[in-house]
Write a structure and sequence with these properties.
By secondary structure, the chain is mostly helical. The protein contains 5 helices and no strands. The relative contact order is 0.13.
Length: 142
Amino acid sequence: MGFAVMLIVWFVAGAEKGGAFIGGTLLNMAVFGAMISYAMQGLSFILLRVRMPNITRPYRSPLGNLGAAVTIVIALVTLYYQLKDPIYQKGVYGAAIWYLAFILYFAVIGRHKLVLSPEEEFALTKGAHGHPETEGYGKTTL
């Protein structure tokens, strides 16, 4: 979808104005989305470690909760500076509107059509109780 928007902007606004918009706005929408994603992943990591400390894990982060906390801080600082820069505010606001629209879609329609991912199915069926194929993984603590 982002590529389609870039092409439309490029051809409607022209190469010079379209390029400035793409570089200044669309690129920062992507960075804004990535920073939200990193912050949420770090928070999810910490919450999973706290709420399910004994779950079988095939991989353990060498940096643990501290690494996740640092990730959250870096992401939030990046978001803060994006919001302070007036050049990038349009992209950030555009991304925020995009997120809110799809959160609303999920709340109204999407949540009724959920299918478990392989990871979620594993966590619900085998992960909390151990599994012969994963014995030995995730037993060490950091």
